[in-house]
Amino acid sequence: MLRHQQRQVLRRLARGVASAAGGSGGASGPQARASVPDYALFTQRLAKARSTILENRPLTLAQKILYAHLHDVSGMTSAPVAGESYLKLAPDRVAMQDASAQMAILQFMLSGMRQTAVPTSIHCDHLVEAHEGADRDVARSWQTSREIYEFLQAAAQKYGIAFWRPGSGIIHQLVLENYAAPGTLMLGTDSHTPNAGGLAMLAIGVGGADAVDAMAAIPWELKAPRVLGVHLRGALQPWCSPKDVVLALAGKLSVRGGTGYIIEYFGDGIESLSCTGMATICNMGAEVGATTSVFPYTQSMARYLEATSRAAIAAAAGANADYLGADAQVASDPARFYDEVVEVDLGALEPGYNGPFTPDLHTPRSRMAETVAAEGWTDQVSAALIGSCTNSSYQDLSRAASLARQASERGVRVAEGTEFLVSPGSEQIRATMERDGIQQAFEAIGAKVLANACGPCIGQWNRDTGAPRAPNTIVSSFNRNFRARNDGNPNTLNFLGSPEMVLAAALSGRLSFNPLTDTLTDAQGRPFQLQPPEGRELPASGYTPGRDEYRPLLDHEPTQSIPISPSSTRLQTLQAFAPWDGREFDNTRVLVTVQGKCTTDHISAAGKWLKYKGHLENLARNTLIGAANAALDGKVNEVVNAVGGLEPARGSIPDVATAYKSAGVPWVVIADYNYGEGSAREHAAMQPRFLGCNMVVARSFARIHETNLKKQGVLPLVFARPDEDYFIFTKNPHELVIRTQGVVGLDEREPAVRLLVDR
C-alpha cells in the first residue's frame, strides 16, 4: 500500500525515461487533433489476451478496451479478478486542465524527460472567473493568472504538449471535438474526463501523479473494475433529454453506487441518442463514483466525427466495429456477463432535478412542486445557468434556444429577479451558436453569455448579490452541486437539470414550475404553455471554428526554459516527500474525525484557492477547512490540539496540523463514507501529506481520492467494521494515540492493518 511513496515514484520515472528512449522515442509532437488509432495493434493485443489469460471468454466493451491496453500480457499468468487484481495499462493520451496541470507539470519536470511519451494537451478553463461576460472575463484572467498561463505555455512548448489558451473552451468539450477516438484509453486530470465515453473512448479521471506515469511511459496501474451494464430501452419523450437519463440513474445508484465499476450502456435505446447526448450521460457517471462510463460505437458517433473533421477516424472505427462493442454473447445474455445490470426504459423517464447539495437526490418534475413545499425549499429562482462541460453541445443549446424563441414571440423575458447565464463549451460551439442565431435567442430574453470556460460550475463566479449568505435557489445544467460549490454561499440551494428545464425555470422564476403542465403569461396578460423543445443533433451548415487565437499552440521547443520565480506566491518547485522509514507508524494523533459528506471540495477548496494550485505550501492553508468535526457536534474547521504546549490549543484544522508538523507529530484523519468524493484534485492528498498526515482511516473511499492518497504516500485504510469502529473515534479523538501493526510486510493480496489505540 505504501509502495507509491514519492521517492519511489521518482525512481520509476527515471526508469521510464530509459523505457521511452528505447521505444518509440515519445509522442510524435503536439497535436491539434487525434490521429487514427492503431486498431490493428489493439486487436492484436486483445487476441493475445483472449487466447492466454482470458481463455477466449466473451467480453464486454469495457473489458475489450482495457485488455487491448495491457502493458505486457506476456507477464500475466491468470485472468485479472475484478475488485482485487491490478492492471498495468498503456494509455494512449493524457489531457489536463490548468488547475491540475500545474502540479502535474511540476512533478513531470522531475522526470528528466525531453518530451511526453504520449500525446498530451493542456486546457486553460478553470482560472477564468465569470463576472462581466465572455471577452472581458478572459482578458481579466490574463491579468490575474498570467504567471500561471506563461508557466504552462512554456512547459507545453518544452515537452511537446498542445496548449489551449484561456477562452478556447472547457477541457472535456475540446477533447470530444478534437481528441476522443473510439476504443482508445485516455487519462485526464479531472473527474469528468469520462465525458469522452460518448465517443466510445475509455476516458478515466486521475490525479496528476497518475497522469505523469502515462506521460513518462510508466505502466499505469488500475484496480480491475467490475462492469455495470445499463440496459437502455425505447426512446426519450419530447421534454426529456440525455441529462434526465443520468439524473435518474444517479438517484437510483447513489453517489457511491458506481464505485469500483465501469458503467457500460447497451440496448436498442442507444441508437436514439446523439453522440453529445451520450457524452453528457458519461460525464455525470463521476457523480456515482464510477471509474468511467462508455457507450458502444454508433452511427451518431460516426456523424459527429465526420462533422468535427475526423472522417478518417470514423472510417477506421467503422471497419473495426467488432472491437468497439460487447461480444454477441454478452448482448444476448447480459446478466451472465455484466457484474450487475440496471434496466432503464427511456420512454418512461420524465424530466427532473437533482439536489440540493448532492447530485443523487432525484425528484421527478411531476413531484417537484409538492416536494418544494414539503421541504421548505426557496421556490424563487435567483439564477439559472446553462452550459458547462456537461451540457454545452449544439444539440443542448439549440433545444434550449427553441424555448427562448417561443418566449420572445410572446414578449416574455427571463423572470424578474432571475439571472440567466450561458457558458458555451468551446470557441467552436460559441461561434456556431452565434452564426445560427442561438446566442441571439438567449440574449433576447435577457441572457449574459460567459466565457468558454468552467466558470460558475467550479466556483469561479464573482456573484454580486449584496447578501453573500442569504438563502436562495439556483438551477443549472452542471454536474455537481455540493454546498457552497458554485458561489461560496452555504445557503444557496443548487439543483441540477437539463438545459431545457433550466430555461423553463428562468422564464417562470420558480423551481416548482412544470413546463409540461403549467403556463406562463405573455406580454398581453394571456396564459400560454411552452411547446416541447426542438433542436438539431448537428449544425446544418457544419461547425465554424471561431477565432484563430483560440486554436491550440503546437510549438515544440525542447530548449525552452520554464519560469518559476523563487518569490512567487502561486508557483513553487516541488521537493520530494521523505520516504517511509520502513517501520510501523507510532505516536500518531487523531487530528479530526470527519462527520458526514467530505468531498475534495471540503478537503481542498476551489474558488478563491484555485490561484494557489501550483504552490503546495500556500494551498495547504485550506486543508480540510470544509470538514465537519464529529467530536465537536459537527463544527466546521475546528479541532482540539492535544499536544501540551503547542498553539493553538483549539483552532482551525490547518493551523493545528501545522503545529503538529512543526513539532514532528504525525497525524491521522478518521473519515465517514465515500471520503474524497468529487473531483480528481490530487491536492486533497498532497496537502495532508505536506502537513504530516500518514494515514486516513475511513468507512469507505471514493476511487480517485484513495488512489491519490497512495500515490502521495498516505496510507488509506478502511474500517473492517465501518458501522462500529468509526464511532470509537467520535468522542474526544484528540486524546487518542495510534500505533499500527501490520504495515511492515503488508500483502496487497490480503491487506490487513491493526490500529492499536491508547489514551
Write structural notes for this entry.
The chain is an alpha/beta fold. The chain contains 24 helices and 30 strands. Strands 28-27-26-21-29-30 form a six-stranded mixed β-sheet. A five-stranded parallel β-sheet has the order 4-3-2-5-6, with helices on both faces. A five-stranded parallel β-sheet has the order 16-15-14-17-18. Helix 4 (98-108) crosses helix 7 (208-215), helix 8 (242-253) packs parallel to helix 9 and helix 22 packs across helix 23. It is globular, with a radius of gyration of 25 Å. The two termini are 27 Å apart. Mean pLDDT is 94; it is low at 1-25.
Task: Offer a few descriptive terms.
disordered N terminus, alpha/beta, five-stranded parallel beta sheet, globular, 759 residues
Brief summary of the model shown:
This protein is α/β, with parallel strands linked by helices. 30% of the residues lie in helices and 16% in strands. A six-stranded mixed beta sheet has the order 28-27-26-21-29-30. Strands 4-3-2-5-6 form a five-stranded parallel beta sheet, with helices on both faces. Strands 16-15-14-17-18 form a five-stranded parallel beta sheet.
